[in-house]
Amino acid sequence: MNILKKFTKEENSWSLYDWGSSAYSITITTAVFPIFYKASATAGGVDAADSTAYLGYTIAIFTFILALIGPILGTIADYRGMKKKFFTFFFVLGVTFTTMLAFVPFDNWLLLLIFYTLAALGATGANVFYDGFIVDVTTNERMHKVSSRGYSLGYIGSTIPFLLSIVIILLAQREIIPISSTNASRIAFVITAVWWVIFSIPMFKNVKQIHFVEKEGNLIVESFKRLGNTFKEIRQYRTVFLFLLAYFFYIDGVGTIISMSTAYGSDLGLSATSLLIVLFATQVVAGPFALLYGKLASKFTEKKMLYVGIIVYIIVCSYAFFLDTIVDFWILAMLVATSQGGIQALSRSYFGKIVPKENSNEFFGFYNIFGKFASIMGPLLVAITAQVTGNSSYGVFSLVILFIIGFIILTKVPEPKTAPPVDQIVKS
C-alpha cells in the first residue's frame, strides 16, 4: 500500500480508521441505506417528498443530540486515558446498530429510522474523538497532509466494500443469485460493519492519547468548569471563534448534500442502480482530489483552498436546481467529488493547528457542536422547503445562502501562521 509510505505507524493507524469507517459514510449515510429506506417508506404508503422530509428530520434529531453532549464528553475525554474509552463506546454503538439495520422488517420504515439514528450517533460520536486524536499522532507542520491523507484513504477504502455491496445488489436484482434485492441490501449493511471493525484494529493498537489533562477532583464537576473556561477562551481567541462561525455555515451545506443526495436523486426518478454507480464513481474521484487539496494547501495555504471548495459547492447547489437527467446527476456528483474530501480535511487540519493540544478534545467538542448544530439547519431547510413547495430542488438550492455566509466570514479569519501562539490565549 504505497499510499501509506513516508508516514509514521501512528499516522498510518489513525488514517486506516478512515479507510474502515468511511464504508459507513458511503453505504449507510449516502447510498444503500437511503435507497433502502425510501423503498421501505414507499411500501409503507409514505409520499416521496414526505419520506425525504422524515429523513431530514431524523438527521436533525441525532445531530442535535450529539451537538448537546459532544462538548461535555470532549471535555471529560481530555483527561488521561479517557479519550480512547469514549471513542470505543461510540464505535461499538455505531457498529452494533449498523449491523442491526439488516434485521429490521422491510415494511417498518420507522424502526429503520430509529436504528439509523443510533448507528449515526455511534459513527459521528466516534469521529469526534477520532478527529481529536489528530493532535496525538502528528505535528502542526504535517497536519494538513495527514488529515488529507486520512480522507483520501477513506474514499479509496470505502469503494471496496461498497463495490462488493453493489455487485451483490445488482446480481440479486437480475436474479443471478437466489436472494431478493432487499436481502442484498441487508448483506451490504453487515459488510459495512465488518469492514469498519477490521480496519479499526490498528487504531486501537497503535494510537494513544499523548496530550492530556491530569485527573483531579470530581471529573464531572471539573469538566464543566473547564468547559466554561474553554467557551470563554474561544470567544477571546478571535481566530478560533471566527473560524468556527464560518465552519458552522459552510459545513452545514456540505453535510446536507452528502446525507441527502441519494434521497434527492430518488425524488428525481433516478433508478437505484444508477444512483449506486454514480456514488461509487464519486468515491473513486474524491480520493485523489482530497490528496490534491492537501498538496495545494502546502502551496496556496489551507484558507485559499477552503475558498475554492466553497465556490465549487455554490456551483453544485445552483446546478442542482436544474437537475433533470442521469447525465446532470453525473455532472453534479463529479463536482461534489472534487471538493468534498478536501474541504473536510483542510477544515479539520486548520482547526487542529490553532487549538491547545492538551485541550484538543475540548476544542474539538466545540468544533463538533458548531458542525452538528449546523447540520440541523441544512436538513431542516431542505425538509421544510421540500414539503412546502412539493419540490426537493428548491430545498437544495436554498443551501447556497449557507455557503455564501460561510465564505464571507472565512475572509475575516487570519491564516494560521499569522495567528498568535496557542500559549498566548488569555486564561480565565
Automatic annotation (TrEMBL):
Transmembrane portions of the chain: 21-39, 54-74, 86-104, 110-130, 151-172, 184-204, 240-264, 270-293, 305-323, 363-386, 392-410
Stored Pfam families: ATG22
Domain Major facilitator superfamily (MFS) profile: 239-428
Listed InterPro entries: Atg22-like, ATG22/LtaA_families, MFS_dom, MFS_trans_sf
Compartment(s) of residence: Cell membrane
Keyword terms of this UniProt record: Membrane, Transmembrane, Transmembrane helix, Transport
Membrane topology, record value: Multi-pass membrane protein
GO cellular component: plasma membrane
GO molecular function: transmembrane transporter activity
Protein name: MFS transporter, UMF1 family
